[in-house]
Specification:
There is one protein chain. This protein has two helices and 18 strands. By secondary structure, the protein is mainly beta. β8 (178-197) and β9 (200-209) form a beta hairpin. The protein is globular, with a radius of gyration of 22 Å.
């Protein structure tokens, strides 16, 4: 029990220090698909090949609830995109992103609100966009806030050795403060897509966030938010009629920390007509560079549903690193819902 208390406190203080000095990674979701504009502003939907003109995505992540003592963390994200111009050869999209990452005790918080725009150009292919190469370029401007409240933490003087419990009525001997740090960020990205035919494609994307190296102040010092580099590769291919498989790879690097997530999903179309309805299942693994070595942090299990106008996804992180001792192998749960408005 005492080890759990100590571990949770050290973990929270570590995250606090990372947030203040901006040496860590910004909030991330385990499910990182090729349409996530938070990872890359060029990941907007392709209006040249799609009937959609307006798209919404909502995603939620709940982490560390299985740890009996201390904060859990909830991350919510809302994305919206609108096609403002589309022709046979190019398209312009605009969009909004809102993300909030908060601890349950409000000790730590991160919020971002971003405006984005993207341009897609068709380089080759026939009038039906088969066997075509396309490129997209995007950029976003973000208003961000980091918030910390040390007063919501407990300290060694508040641990009662007689009851082996935290007693917040005891004096901590620390100076309590609430600090808020605001900064703006500039993010850019590019994506290449080779479309074989409808629903069959290869794509690769690269983005850099915080290219303006924004800074936040902590006490008497100012620290820069380091750029975040994201590479994504994805493909959708037929195994047989009505049966697709989708290998994917995501690499994220920021401030010396990186994670690599190879993933594999399959989709089974249970309708035989054009109004498809698919069941999806997938598995992935998250590898990270820890302090001592590269480790496998979690196995990712994904289930979902997909139709031409909406999609639903459920993801479960199963910890396989030493962290599983405190989480009972339960890392995080994620839910995602997407909806498209189409012209047809």
């Amino acid at each position: 029990m005492i080890n759990s208390y100590i571990y949770k406190l050290l973990l929270l203080l570590t995250v606090f220090t990372v947030s203040i000095h901006a040496y860590g990674q910004e909030p991330m979701f385990s499910v990182a698909l090729g349409d996530d504009t938070y990872l890359n502003p060029a990941n907007t939907f392709n209006a040249i090949t799609s009937d959609a003109y307006l798209k919404f995505n909502v995603q939620f992540r709940d982490q560390w609830n299985s740890v009996s003592v201390g904060d859990s963390y909830a991350t919510s994200k809302l994305q919206a995109e609108y096609n403002v111009y589309e022709s046979q050869y190019d398209a312009w999209n605009v969009g909004l992103i809102f993300l909030s990452d908060q601890s349950s005790a409000r000790s730590l918080g991160y919020t971002t609100f971003q405006f984005l725009g993207s341009y897609t150009r068709k380089l080759s292919g026939d009038r039906k966009n088969n066997d075509s190469h396309m490129v997209s370029f995007g950029g976003s401007f973000g208003f961000n806030q980091l918030k910390s409240s040390v007063g919501n933490l407990w300290f060694g003087r508040q641990f009662n050795l007689n009851t082996f419990a935290i007693d917040n009525s005891l004096m901590s001997g620390e100076e309590f403060r609430i600090d808020s740090y605001n900064y703006n960020s500039l993010n850019i990205g590019a994506r290449w897509t080779y479309r074989i035919e409808k629903d069959l494609y290869y794509t690769a994307a690269l983005s850099i966030s915080n290219i303006n190296s924004p800074s936040v102040s902590a006490l008497d010092d100012a620290h820069s938010i380091n750029p975040r580099l994201v590479f994504q590769g994805e493909a959708s291919l037929y195994l047989s009629p009505g049966f697709e498989h989708m290998p994917a790879l995501t690499f994220v690097s920021q401030s010396g920390f990186w994670q690599l997530v190879p993933a594999y999903r399959v989709a089974i179309d249970i309708n035989s007509d054009e109004d498809s309805f698919s069941l999806l299942a997938g598995v992935g693994m998250r590898a990270v560079n820890s302090i001592e070595s590269v480790i496998a942090d979690a196995i990712l299990i994904n289930l979902g549903l997909r139709s031409p106008n909406w999609s639903f996804s459920f993801n479960f992180d199963m910890n396989v690193s030493s962290l599983r001792t405190f989480t009972n192998s339960n890392g995080a749960i994620e839910l995602a819902l997407g909806y498209n408005l189409t012209s047809n």
